[in-house]
Amino acid sequence: MAEAPSALETKADAPVNGLRSLNRLLIRALKALGDEGQTDLACRIAAEAWSLLRTERPEEAEKLNGALHYLTRPAHRKEKETSMSDPQQLDVRALPPPQRHALIFATCGKLPVGSAVVLVNDHDPKPLYYQFEAEQPGQFGCEYVESGPEVWRVRITRKKAA
After folding, report:
1. pTM greater than the 0.70 cutoff
2. Which neighbouring-strand residues pair with 157?
3. Cα dihedral angle (54, 60, 61, 63), rounded to 10 degrees?
4. Which pairing describes strands 140-147 and 116-121: parallel, antiparallel, or unpaired?
5. Is the dihedral of CA 66, 60, 95, 145 positive or negative?
6. What is the Cβ-side half-sphere exposure of residue 113, based on CA atoms within 13 angstroms?
7. How far apart, in whole angstroms, are the C-alpha atoms of residue 30 and residue 149?
């Protein structure tokens, strides 16, 4: 039979449990906002929250990453797609999802201004756009080259240096 947590353990867990509850509430609100047509605003808020949590509370940040993916599914996306020639490609489809964003950020962080990479993914990588904007506003541009349903290609261009 498991022991009941002590009063000290319960008090110590309160901030973590409060953060989890707050994050769940935020995600519900973001999804509702997106479902009502305010997808861009919801994505920007989700990406900012993700940026605040990703180092200290990566498990909660990952939940916000999931919300970004929900918000950028085809039913929410309204952007015009463009076709372009392919520069260097970064195919992340074989990687486990938790490893993809770190590789993409590292690769794009090394791009010289004016250079681009085409990200190849198995789902819409729109959450990355919002995460880039949350952490490095105005430094990167994203343009669809191919948009599913099985493969997405997005040209990520370094617009300016940090």
Report:
1. no
2. 116, 141
3. 160
4. unpaired
5. positive
6. 6
7. 24
**Secondary structure of 95-159 as H, E, C letters:** CCHHHHHHHHHHHHHCCCCCCEEEEEECCCCHHHHHHHHHHCCCCEEEEEEEECCCCEEEEEEEC
Tens of pLDDT along 75-88?
Answer: 655 433 333 344 68
- pLDDT at position 79 is 39
CB 118 within 8 A of CB 153: yes
Q: What angle do the packed helices 39-53 and 7-35 form, to 10 degrees?
A: 150
Say if CB 73 and CB 91 are below 8 A apart.
no
| pLDDT at site 53 | 94
Task: Scan for tokens 């952490």, then name that residue.
Answer: 135
